[in-house]
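Supplementary Methods, section 5.1.

A reviewer requested that the exact input to the structure prediction be made available. We therefore reproduce it here, unchanged from the version used in the analyses.
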Amino acid sequence: MSWPDSQFAPGPARPGQARIRLAGFAGTALLLGGVAAIGVAVLAQQHAPSPTGAAAGTVGPAARTPSLRRSAPVSVAIPAIGVRSPLLRLGLNPDGSIQVPDITTSADDAAWYKNSVTPGEIGTAVIEGHVDSQVGPAVFFRLGALRPGDHIDVTLADGMTAVFRVTGVREYTKNDFPTEMIYGPTNYASLRVVTCGGTFDYATGHYLSSVVVFASLVSSQRSVMG
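The structure derived from this sequence is encoded token-by-token as follows.
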């Protein structure tokens, strides 16, 4: 499977280049409903929350932020919306499209795009997940309810937890998806969390928009191992 309508994802960086490159990437939204998924609204009259205008906030931080050394992420927690998920590590399909969690077995799992920087490194780290599946809400069903100031905690393989502060939550139609702003490199430790949203198109089986959370690293702490 691949992210519907995304076509070619940014691939691994070559030495000396930004870790996420935009060349060859179609400027369309990553719509994360499964290829044949039925919208939750159809199944149970449940509707994923959409970001409000007041939540749009900013793309980046107002001040310089800290950074961490490279370490692969293993899990993500978003307390404000009750999310706690292991992080799959997904890359590209042979045709260059970005891989996605299996809609039937991993709808409740988020995924780190492994060709992006690791969360906490300088640059843009990307985490994605489904909003729903054929059986109901998925891992990022309530992503649109986040607000600036909420925290996203990413636990890393080296035992550190990277703490990100949400700066903005926005919804984009696929025709107006700002690819460079969302996936392009940054000079601070940024995080983008992406799922689908907006109107569900019954004809194609896809959502017509994406919900994007913008966040930046504010601190880190040693993880408490249970």
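The chain has one domain: 40-222. These observations are discussed further in the main text.
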